[in-house]
Amino acid sequence: MTQFDEQATQKLFEKNLITEEQFVQVKAYRSLGIFSLHNELKLFLYLSVLLFTTGIGILIYQNIDTIGHVAILSLLLIVTVICFYFCFKNSKGFQKEDSSFENPVLQYLVLTATILSCIFVGYIQFQYELFGTHYGLATLVPTIISFFCAYYFDNKSALTIAVTGLAAYIGLSVSPQSLLSNDFYATDTLSYSAIILGGLLILWTIYSTKINLKMHFNFIYLTYALHLISIAAINNLFQGYWLIFAIVLGASTYYFYKVSYQIPAISLFVFTIIYAYIGINIIVFKFLEFIDASNFYELVLFAAPFYVIGSIILFIKLIKNFNKQKANDSIR
């Protein structure tokens, strides 16, 4: 057993929530080291969907001259309709709470249908310009379809596609290549759009919590909001009006620090701390530059290793405290 499991089981026994016999049985069961293959099987299903949709894309690319556009679009449409048919047939319908399929395989069928729908709309726009020069509609339509699939079928993967499409619609590209080479860092407007979109996603989570609408989707919205706001704010710390964005980053850090405990979500907590640490370091360097730290070069050089080591120790301590708090909350 892990240390936290042992502590949790011990506290349950000390509070008389389980008997001594149950305590011994729990310890004996956990000592067997049995683990579930559920997550591994879900991973293989997810990979199979990605490989299938990728294979269709490669097939289209390699045989576009021999198959023909109409045949390709017809094939895409038929496969998409078949996927949606089985999804609707086995769906419980829209529900505000968690309403997963009885068979988890159908969740991946929803994902397949969503991706194929995006491919179909993108292909028909590229080849026939269905929406004319309004290229934003070619992004918005798949986004709307993805949002519908996410809420109707209660599918988190479709929601991820939908939020990504929404970001792309306002001009934000979230691929790793874009983080290194596109206009996000060169265009202030995109930074403002990222912060506004992040704020709107936060407001939506607050509203959906209030009306009890798919509250388990909040983690995805908050994850996108955290990255959008933090990256945009850190990017603008290098601008002349950096103080405003330092305040934005500080407010974002405080909010997500509190939310990560409420959910709880270790990934939100870790990234919140990392972004805050990056922002603090940038501000510290700006301060050193302002006071002309070259006069204190030896002192700064001497203190730097202690600062790094202290930061690492503090980070580890924060993670341990978070896990401890999470374990205590699960016992209550």
List keywords for this structure.
3 domains, 332 residues, globular, mainly alpha, 14 helices
Structure explained in plain terms:
The protein is an all-alpha fold. The chain has 3 domains: 1-35; 38-169, no CATH class; 172-332. Helices cover 79% and strands 0% of the residues. It contains 14 helices and no strands. The protein is globular, with a radius of gyration of 25 Å. Residues 174-183 have low confidence and may be disordered. InterPro entries: DUF2157.
Shape descriptor reads globular
Q: How many structural units, i.e. domains?
A: 3
Sheet with the most strands, sense and barrel status? none
- One letter per element, helices H and strands E, the order comes to HHHHHHHHHHHHHH
- End-to-end Cα distance, whole Å, is 20 Å
Low-confidence stretches: 174-183
Q: Per DSSP, what share of the residues sits in E-state strands of 2 or more residues?
A: under 5%
The helix count comes to 14
| Extended strand count | 0
Q: What does the average pLDDT come to?
A: 82
Structural Rg:
25 Å
**What oligomeric state is this?**
single chain
* Helix share bin: over 70%
The class by helix and strand makeup works out as: mainly alpha
